[in-house]
Amino acid sequence: MKFFLDTGSVDEIRKGNELGLVDGITTNPTLVAKEGLSFKDLLKEICAIVPGPVNAEVTAPDAPGMLRQAMELKEVAPNIIIKIPMIPEGLKALKTLSEKKVKTNVTLIFSPVQALIAAKLGATYVSPFIGRLDDISQVGMDVIRQIRQIFDNYGLETQILTASVRHPVHVLEAALAGSDVATMPYKVYEMLIKHPLTDSGNEKFLADWKKLQEAK
C-alpha cells in the first residue's frame, strides 16, 4: 500500500521525504490556505520535492470551470493529479478529463456506489473519507472493504485512496482491506513509526553498549 502525505506544508513534505515514506501528496483548498502562497507556486515547490502523484483540487462550481482549472493545473508539472468533487458537475468534468487521458482523483466519496460511478467514468483514484463517516457513527472502513470487493468483481483499475485517516489503526485497517493508498497527516506518519517497546528497547541497547565501552 502506498503512503500519501495529506498536507500543504512544504516543511512536512521535506521531513516525510527524508524518511522515504512519501509516495505522493494530497492537498485541498483548506490545507493550501494555511500556507500563505499562491496555489500554483506551492504546487511547483511540492512537485520539485516529490516525484510521485501530487493531487491538486479544482474549486469551480461547474464543469466548464473545473475543466479550465484542470488544464491549468495540469501544466504545473507532469505528476499533477486533478481532484474532482463527487457531484454532478464534477462527473461531467471527469468524463471529459478521462477522454483526454488526464489523471484524476474523485474526492468526497462516502458510499461504495459513488466509488463505482467514478470508476466507470475513468477516475484514476477514488477517495472515500473514512474518518468523516466514523464521525457520524458509520464504520468508514466498511466502505473501503465494499469498494475493494466491487472493483475486484469487475476488474476495475481505479485505485482506492483511503482519506480522512485519523490514526494508525485506520492505516492498518486500510492495508488489511486492500486499499491501494492511504493518505494521512504528518502526525499520523510519526505515530506509525513509534512504539513504546521500540523506544525502551533501543534505550536499553544503548545503555548496555555504553557499559561495555566503559568496561574496556
Describe this structure in words.
- Helix content is 54%, strand content 17%.
- By secondary structure, it is α/β, with parallel strands linked by helices.
- Helix 1 (10-18) packs parallel to helix 3 (39-49), helix 4 crosses helix 5 (88-99) and helix 6 packs parallel to helix 8.
- The longest helix is centred in the C-terminal third of the chain and has 20 residues, at 196-215.
Based on the model shown, name its key terms:
216 residues, alpha/beta, TIM Barrel, eight-stranded parallel beta barrel, 54% helix
Chain-averaged pLDDT: 93
The number of distinct β-strands equals 8
Strand order of the largest sheet: 1-2-3-4-5-6-7-8
Q: What integer value in Å does the Rg equal?
A: 20 Å
Tell me the overall shape: globular
Which structural class best describes the helix and strand composition? Answer: alpha/beta
Topology as a string of helices (H) and strands (E): EHEHHEHEHEHEHHEHEHH
CATH superfamily: Aldolase class I
Please report the first level of CATH classification, the CATH class. Answer: Alpha Beta
Biggest sheet overview:
8 strands, parallel, barrel
Tell me what portion of residues adopts beta-strand conformation.
15-25%
> Ends: how far apart?
47 Å
Question: Which CATH-level-2 architecture?
Answer: Alpha-Beta Barrel
Counted by DSSP, the helix tally is: 11
The CATH topology is TIM Barrel
The portion of residues assigned to helices is 40-55%
Spans of at least 5 consecutive residues whose pLDDT stays below 50 are: none
